[in-house]
């Protein structure tokens, strides 16, 4: 059974993930019914048509969500948790002008204000065509709560969780939610920070890395049991399948090698099943079949890690809150967090990458990465600094796995940089590489199936 079945009338085929998730008409569509004539919603490339339609669909989505939320029950629950201190929530309404302060790409936030000045937020998952099924939404919420509860016992400045509820009939609020501390500060805008401000943030982030290194875990995966430091399966849509109507998550694993092999094999299986990359299935299959072959080269069998560390899954920079003096006041948005070996967990955050050079395939570190590595060295942590100095290959491999190939120009540079980093097929342009690889994998059963359909 697929993650989603096509919503087109009388169609029973697998819906295509991501590409087939249309937020404009709020449907999941298969590779056939994505085609013009069946699906005529504007494409994002046509901004004049797409942008107004996207705004309208967002307004419908948020109004539907607002109708589901019982704010009276939410406030009553919050007040109860603080021994009866009265609190209130704002009147919920969709406001296009202030939307960015209340929501992100995946979540909607409601302020809960107490009479004594304390402010909490209720973090609620958005519901649209890009949202995972309910069982997976619950698992992701549960994992985020478990992660935040773990972080409470560290010096990492993460918000404290006071309560949470999953989507079920006993939940009087009407939706799954996390009640958590509202931290002060504003999201870091790295591109606008001066060199001095950047260095100040990097120094504090280096301290956070050093703190997280104190808490090793025995497995790779996501924390899955609130109140316990237990590593379970990855809490991520891309690493989840559904088998016989049951959620089938990936992990946990005892080695990075196991994780890469399993996750890439899942991608290959989903390509064959027409659930991903339906418009570039052959290219995507060849890419990931090649990546599968690279795993032993990147991670020789004798190279074992038995300690893994918590890693933020979306470290572009806006997950960091800072005050006016660029003191870090909080690190937020811990959904999808996972444990990883030190080489990944303490690699340079994505926000420090030299974006233009990185996408052009250049494998030298950027100025911010170099500065961050040197700060770790100054703090006496050469081991963590080495994760940054040697991190480019891991960045490239991670980016190429599951990359959105609609950004083809971006991918070509990334992929060229990866092949140069591992010195495999590094002298070939894309068309040459594809010809060579089609021949290399001509007997691969999965590739034969893909070629027969495309």
From TrEMBL:
Annotated protein name in UniProt: Aminoglycoside phosphotransferase domain-containing protein
Species lineage: Eukaryota, Fungi, Dikarya, Ascomycota, Pezizomycotina
Organism: Epichloe festucae (strain Fl1)
Alphabetized SUPFAM superfamilies for the sequence: AN1-like Zinc finger, Protein kinase-like (PK-like)
InterPro entries attached to this UniProt entry: AGP_Transferase (IPR051678), Aminoglycoside_PTrfase (IPR002575), AN1-like_Znf (IPR035896), Kinase-like_dom_sf (IPR011009)
Domain Aminoglycoside phosphotransferase: 141-341
